Amino acid sequence: MLLAFAPHIACVLGAAAAVASDAFEQRRAAVTFAVAGLVAGAALAFVASARAPELTGDVVLSGSGFSAAVAVICAIGALVVLGSWRHLLRAESGGGLAALAAVSVAAAASAATAADILVLLIALEAMAICAYALVWSAKTSASVEAAVKYFVQGAIATGLFVLGLAILFGLYGGSTGYVWIRGVIGTETGPPVTTAFVLIAAALAYKIGAFPFHSWALDVFETAPPQFSALLAGVPKLAAVVAMLILFSRSIFAGLDPAYNFWVFASLAVLSMVFGATGGLLQRSYTRMLAYSGVAQIGYALVGVAIGAVAMTPVALLVTAYALAAAGAFLAAGVVRAERPGWDGTIGGLAGIGRERPILGVGVVVMMFSLIGMPLTAGFWGKFLVFGVAVSAGYWWLALIGVTASVVSFGYYGAVLRALYFDSPFESEPQAEGGERDIPSLVAVTLIALLVVAIGTVPLVVGLQGLLGFLTFA
Questions:
Q1: Domain end call among 113, 147, 166
Q2: Residue 61: CB partners within 8 Å, gap ≥ 6?
Q3: CB–CB of 157/213 below 8 Å?
């Protein structure tokens, strides 16, 4: 039982030690404690993933794919905080920001494994509160405005979730555990249950940034420090998508009319894929383009959510691949910012950096290829399996829209690749003057790129089941 909670405890203890160290102005120690807590959390979750899945005290799910998801969340969090080392040492209250990042990861781990809808709500709100602060930490007028908008819209989403929870508790009071509510609801599909379904689905759609609940993401990821966007773009979405799969495919709402469940999430998927793939084509800002990319990637994941429990493992792999690639892509922006202080944040401003910094250039190429879904990357297997499940279930048109959106999105990913290697910076640009190397971020980008390629090539050696075995949800 203790092993189920151990990863969360390790992350929180690391955050507490970071806060204590920061109070004594030991910023380096604070960041070290935060990273250590996240690494310990990932290791403990990996150990727990070897166990059979179990329900612990009606609070969390552990073992098998559930603990594997926690391991992935903690590992990505550790890589991001490690990559943010230079930024955190120089930022005001850097130790406190590292602690916030660790708490956000712990909350994401709790959301991904929640077995109680009240626990899920608390975890989602803890993630959100940390996110508001991390976005605000840039302390520019744009980031403050984005944080306020994020807060206001997040409050509305929380209100929707609470209303849905109130309906469920009012109808089936006595427990907020998934098992209890699922057993009482059964296959009931009356108006109250349908209303609760819609309210909670809308709230979670906001949390993952699906269209039309995406507006917060565009400003947040563009204005927040790229080191924190690297965390917020992937980890909370991975947690929320896994939570959606558990809620709607395996527990509380699993007995509702499958057709109703399908059309709600299929509609969100199509709208997100189309909007994300086309909207990004018009963007000049590198980080805002990545925000549009995130909307499209969530659309691909929602294809699996619409299909149901059979797609749970493919969706988890797809969102894991996205979280890794998004983290690496945003951290790369931090490296560019350090080396080119005059960089205006545009894709055109990346001109020639792939030739100047080969390791960074290759890392960005790997991230872009994975987001596209190119073979030999993690993103390929995620999309291949999700779209394959869609075709097998008879929804070939949904897979066709996804493949088309992926092809269209190559327009803006390709613009990044062209800028890296084929465009030349203007001679009058001062971007390269006064810059310095951000070694920790570059190391993190390199490690993430290696992971993305490793996941993409493992099936060629051990077979597809060897890859899926780690994220299998029994």
A1: 113
A2: 53, 54, 55, 113, 114, 115, 246
A3: yes
Q: How many separate domains does the chain show?
A: 2
β-pair partners for 56: 60
Structure tokens at 458: 């493992």
pLDDT, tens digit (0-9, with 9 covering 90-100), for 91-117? 778 888 999 999 999 999 999 888 888
* Whether 183 and 140 share a structural domain: yes
pLDDT digits (tens, 9 = 90+) for 178-206: 777 776 665 566 777 788 888 988 999 99
pTM (2 decimals)?
A: 0.91
Reduced to 3 states (helix: H, G, I; strand: E, B; else coil), residue 56 is strand
Contacts of 352-355 spanning 24+ positions with Cβ under 8 A: 352/419, 352/420, 352/421, 352/423, 352/424, 352/425, 353/419, 353/420, 354/420, 354/421, 355/420, 355/421
Examine the domain organization and report whether 369 and 458 are in the same domain: yes
Of 84, 113, 142, the residue that ends a domain is 113
Shared domain for 178 and 311, answered yes or no, is: yes
Q: How many CB atoms lie within 10 A of CB 421?
A: 15
* CA proximity to 67, closest of 86, 88, 90, 47: 47
> What span, in angstroms and rounded, lies between the C-alpha atoms of 22 and 169?
42
- Bridge partners (DSSP) of residue 96 are none
| 143 and 209 fall within a common domain | yes
Is the same domain home to 159 and 288?
yes
Q: How confident is the model at residue 439 (pLDDT cuts 50, 70, 90)?
A: confident
Same domain, 285 and 200: yes
Q: Which two tokens stand for residue 451?
A: 């992971």
What CA–CA distance (Å, rounded) separates 85 from 95?
Answer: 10
Where in the sequence is the domain holding 137, given as residue range(s)? 114-470
Q: Is there a single domain that holds both residue 206 and residue 218?
A: yes
Give CA–CA dist 301/319, Å, rounded.
7
